[in-house]
């Protein structure tokens, strides 16, 4: 999709569809104002349009060059934030799809947001809502409406800011779609080796580095967690190190992103039931996908920040040689872990990556993972739990990532990490065991990871929002790409020199 900004007058704009976002309180005045450039249809629409969120009304203006106009409700003016714009734009994308519009324009809405934030949000909402995964649709892929080809912003003033925001929005939306594509991919097309190859390809294309470790190297590094999870599989594991280190980076020690890359989670010998459980487990590399999408955006936005990405990848299967409950593992860190449930595999592969991360002396490490069903119970699909270790700056870290969540729409909310939760991981035979118990499953998983962490750290459990059965505005069924917008927003803020001590 091409995105551009223009200052052509409203009436002269020749497009298939002109989108006009309107807040409830703006409706009467705006429709009266638009009568001059677009025609009296606008004024007559007033009775049929309230401006409430999610609403759209298509009109055929007599005066304008645009073939159609759609009014998009943004809801109450007092609640006008970037998310309201994304949702209105998503409704605009639905209208565009219904009328198969090739060229679409947005009239910049009147909001308290600055033009850059507003245009970024509109592009994100529009592009993300236009996403469809057609790779395996043999006929539809040929004939389906391929989405708008051109998206134009009408900017009266501040067109420089609008241009920057639109470009940022386009880059971020594409990165989110990269993550969605990877999650939606059939498991047999994303074995650990193929996933690593996809990262190498993306690295080359977008201009960051990727170094793929094979099984022999993983053995040499003694990544006992990753190797144990991999034992029931016929496919070897991979461990991929991604590097974005621009010359103008503001940090010397890196920020590290760790993404869970379980390319399929059967549960292993602690086998999952199929329906409502194993049937969506191709999503178990959504954390890895979020990191891959984030690197694409970092490189394309040329963010002046040194960032390392770590992707431990394997599937979790009950093959002949599979690890079993009762196995004691020697982890990369040197600690021992008693396995009591082979379905608690994500924490084992993350633990090795987190302990390896220490060799970089990182400023901060963020891991992102579809880690626990308990996270879905706690927060559903509207937000992801975030947890941190009790080091200096814990409160600021949590506040910063929650703020990034609010701004980006990938919302996260904190859970506590009281010491007592860690007691549930005591093992009779090893240093710790890999499951806590029925209670507080998201927290005990984080407490497990904390054993392998020796630096400021954030853990984001995206088991809920990473993959949807019921679509939401601008998030389709299947992979959502959750985490890309969160991490990109967080890191852009983090790189801001005014915020660095
Ligand atoms: N990949 C799952 C978690 C998950 C559940 C992701 C639902 C997405 C949607 C993870 O590996 C898992 O199986 N966790 C277990 C842990 C338990 C055995 C302690 C769980 O949550 O049931
Ligand atoms: Mn599992
Ligand atoms: Zn898993």
Helix percentage range: 25-40%
Question: Helices and strands: which structural class?
Answer: alpha/beta
Query: What is the CA-CA span between the terminal residues?
Result: 39 Å
Q: Give the full name of the CATH homologous superfamily of the largest domain.
A: Zn peptidases
CATH class of the largest domain: Alpha Beta
CATH architecture tag of the largest domain: 3-Layer(aba) Sandwich
As a percent range, the share of strand residues is 15-25%
CATH topology of the largest domain: Aminopeptidase
Largest sheet: 9 strands, mixed
Shape: elongated
Heterogens? ligand BES, manganese (II) ion, zinc ion
**Total beta strands:** 20
Q: What integer value in Å does the Rg equal? A: 24 Å
* Oligomer description: single chain
Enumerate the spans where pLDDT stays under 50 for 5 or more consecutive residues.
none
Round the mean pLDDT to the nearest integer and report it. 96
């Amino acid at each position: 999709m091409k995105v551009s900004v223009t200052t052509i007058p409203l009436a002269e704009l020749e497009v298939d569809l002109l989108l006009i976002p309107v807040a409830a309180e703006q409706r009467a005045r705006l429709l009266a104002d638009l009568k001059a450039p677009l025609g009296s249809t606008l004024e007559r629409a007033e009775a049929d349009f309230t401006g409430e969120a999610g609403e759209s009304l298509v009109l055929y203006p007599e005066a304008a060059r645009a073939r159609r106009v759609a009014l998009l409700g943004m809801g109450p003016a007092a609640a006008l934030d970037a998310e309201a714009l994304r949702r209105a734009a998503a409704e605009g994308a639905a209208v565009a799809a219904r009328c198969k519009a090739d060229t679409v324009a947005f009239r910049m809405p009147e909001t308290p947001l600055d033009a850059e934030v507003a245009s970024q949000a509109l592009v994100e909402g529009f592009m993300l809502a236009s996403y469809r995964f057609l790779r395996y649709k043999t006929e539809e892929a040929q004939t389906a409406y391929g989405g708008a080809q051109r998206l134009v912003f009408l900017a009266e003033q501040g067109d420089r800011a609008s241009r920057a925001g639109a470009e940022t929005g386009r880059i971020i939306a594409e990165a989110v779609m990269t993550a969605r594509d990877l999650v939606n991919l059939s498991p047999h097309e994303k074995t650990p080796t193929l996933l690593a190859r996809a990262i190498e390809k993306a690295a080359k294309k977008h201009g960051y580095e990727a170094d793929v470790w094979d099984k022999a190297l993983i053995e040499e590094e003694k990544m006992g967690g990753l190797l144990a999870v991999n034992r029931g599989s016929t496919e070897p594991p991979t461990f991929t190190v991604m590097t974005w280190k621009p010359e103008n980076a503001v940090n010397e020690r890196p920020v590290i992103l760790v993404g869970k890359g379980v390319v399929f989670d059967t549960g292993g010998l602690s086998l999952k039931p199929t329906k409502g459980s194993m049937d969506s487990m191709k999503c178990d590399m959504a954390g890895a996908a979020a990191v891959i999408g984030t690197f694409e955006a970092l490189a394309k936005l040329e963010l002046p920040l040194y960032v390392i990405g770590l992707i431990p990848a394997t599937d979790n299967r009950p093959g002949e040689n599979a690890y079993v409950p009762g196995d004691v593992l020697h982890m990369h860190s040197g600690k021992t872990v008693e396995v009591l449930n082979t379905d608690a595999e994500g924490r084992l592969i993350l633990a090795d990556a987190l302990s390896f991360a220490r060799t970089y002396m990182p400023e901060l490490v963020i891991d992102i993972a579809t880690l626990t069903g308990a996270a879905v119970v706690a927060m559903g699909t509207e937000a992801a739990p975030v947890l941190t270790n009790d080091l200096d700056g814990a409160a600021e870290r949590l506040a910063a990532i929650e703020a990034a969540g609010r701004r980006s729409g990938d919302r996260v909310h904190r859970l506590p990490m009281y010491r007592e939760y860690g007691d549930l991981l005591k093992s009779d035979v090893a240093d710790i065991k890999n499951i806590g118990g029925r209670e507080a499953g998201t927290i005990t998983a984080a407490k497990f990871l904390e054993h392998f962490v020796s630096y400021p750290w954030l853990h984001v459990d995206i088991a809920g929002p990473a993959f949807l059965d019921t679509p939401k505005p601008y998030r389709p069924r299947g992979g959502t790409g959750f985490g890309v917008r969160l991490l990109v927003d967080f890191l852009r803020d983090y790189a801001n020199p005014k915020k660095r001590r």
